[in-house]
From TrEMBL:
Disulfide bond among keywords: no
Basic and acidic residues bias (residue ranges): 1-14
Lineage: superkingdom: Eukaryota
Keywords: Coiled coil
Residue numbers spanned by region Disordered: 1-25
Species for this entry: Thryothorus ludovicianus (Carolina wren)
The protein's name: TNIP2 protein
UniProt keyword annotation of Transferase present: no
Biological-process GO terms, alphabetical: cellular response to lipopolysaccharide; positive regulation of canonical NF-kappaB signal transduction; regulation of transcription by RNA polymerase II; toll-like receptor 2 signaling pathway; toll-like receptor 3 signaling pathway
C-alpha cells in the first residue's frame, strides 16, 4: 500500500516537473484553457441558478393559485349548501342539485389533481437541475 502511494506520489511529482519544465507559452496555453473551463462552468452555474429561481417562483405561483382555487371552491360549496337549505322544493328538484354537486366536486378534484401533478413535475425538474448544478 505504501509502495503504491509512493509510486503515485512520484507520478504526481513527475507531472509537476513536466509543468515546470514546459516552455512559457505552453504554461500560458494551459492557464488560458483552465480559465476558459472556469468561465464555462461559471456560466453554466449562473444559468442553472436562473432556471432554479424561475422554477421556484413558478412553483410558488402555482401553490398560491391552488390555495386561492381551493378557497374559492370552499366558498362556492358553502353558497351551494345555503342555496340547498333555502330551497323547499320537492325531491325531484333536489336530484339535479345533487348531480350538480357531484359534477362540481369532480371538477374541483380534477383541478386540484392537475395542479398537484404540475407541481410535482416542476419539483422533479427543479431536482434534476440541482443535480446538474452539483455535477457542474
Amino acid at each position: 500500500e505504501v509502495q503504491k502511494l509512493n509510486q503515485q506520489l512520484e507520478e504526481k511529482n513527475g507531472e509537476i516537473q513536466q509543468m515546470i519544465n514546459q516552455p512559457p507559452y505552453e504554461k500560458e496555453r494551459e492557464i488560458l484553457r483552465l480559465q476558459q473551463t472556469l468561465a464555462e462552468r461559471e456560466k453554466a452555474q449562473a444559468t442553472s441558478d436562473v432556471l432554479c429561481r424561475s422554477l421556484t417562483d413558478e412553483t410558488h405561483q402555482l401553490q398560491r393559485k391552488l390555495a386561492s382555487t381551493a378557497e374559492m371552491c370552499q366558498h362556492l360549496a358553502k353558497c351551494l349548501e345555503e342555496k340547498q337549505r333555502k330551497e323547499k322544493g320537492n325531491s325531484d328538484d333536489q336530484i339535479p342539485t345533487e348531480r350538480s354537486n357531484q359534477v362540481f366536486l369532480q371538477l374541483l378534484l380534477d383541478n386540484e389533481t392537475s395542479l398537484q401533478a404540475l407541481i410535482c413535475n416542476l419539483q422533479e425538474e427543479n431536482r434534476i437541475l440541482k443535480q446538474k448544478v452539483a455535477h457542474v
